[in-house]
From TrEMBL:
Protein name stated in the entry: NADH-quinone oxidoreductase subunit J
Family: Belongs to the complex I subunit 6 family.
InterPro entries xref list: NADH_UbQ/plastoQ_OxRdtase_su6, Nuo/plastoQ_OxRdtase_6_NuoJ
Residue span of region Disordered: 188-217
Gene Ontology CC: one annotated term: plasma membrane
Localization (cell): Cell membrane
Main subcellular location of this protein, as a coarse class: membrane
Amino acid sequence: MSELSGGEATLFWVLAPLAVIGALGMVLARNAVHSALWLVVTMLCLGVFYVAQAGPFIGMAQIIVYTGAIMMLFLFVLMLVGRDASDSLIETLRGQRIAAIVLGLGFAGLVGAGLSRALTGTGAIGLAAANENGNLQGIAQLLFTKYVFAFEVTSALLISAAVGAMILAHVERAIGEKPSQVDRMKARFAPGSYPGPKAGPGVFATSDSVATPARLPDGTLAERSISKILPVRELTSQESAPKGTEK
C-alpha cells in the first residue's frame, strides 16, 4: 500500500473530523430534519474521499445521487409528514432506549473487530479492475457481470424500503372525514361567518373607520358590517341621519 501524498493527507485530516462530526450529529440530533442535514455533511465528505482515491464515478454518484437526490427526498418527506421532536420521546416499551444503545454499541464492536481481523495485513485490491478502460467502464463491467446478483438484490431492498416508508407515513382516513370543496364553500359563506365585513348593495358608511357600522337602505345600522372583535363606534344623531335628510 503506497503512502499518502501531502495533499491527500491534508484532505483526509480536514474532512475526516467533519465526517465523524456529521455522523455523531445525525445520531444525537433530536430533530429529524437536523439529523438528515448532518447526514448530508457526512455524505459530502465521503464523496470527496472517493474522488481522492481514484474513483470519480462513485464519488460523483455519492454527491449527486445520494446527497443531492435521495437526501433531499428524505427532507421533503420529513417536512411533509411533520414529525416533531416530541414524537421520538414517547417510549412504547420501557427501557427500549437503553437496550437499543447497548445493542448498537455491541454490534458496532463486533463489526469493527471482524473487519480489523479480516483486513489486518491485507492490501487494497480491486482498484485496477474498477479503473480498467476507464473508471465508468470498469465499474459498469463489474456491476453487470461479476456482481450482477448482488446489484439486483440491493435494488430490490431499496424498493422495499421505499414502499415500507410510504406505508408507514400513510394515514388512513374515513370516507366522510375529509370535507369536500362544496362543504367548505357552504361553511365559509354560511350566515354569520362571512370572509370579511362586506356590506350589501346600497349600503354606505359615514366614516372611514372600520369600527363604524354601515347603513342599510332604510337608514338602520348593519350589524354584520362590523367584526365582532372590534368595539362599535357610537354615532351621534347628526351622524346617524342618512345623507340627504339633513337640514
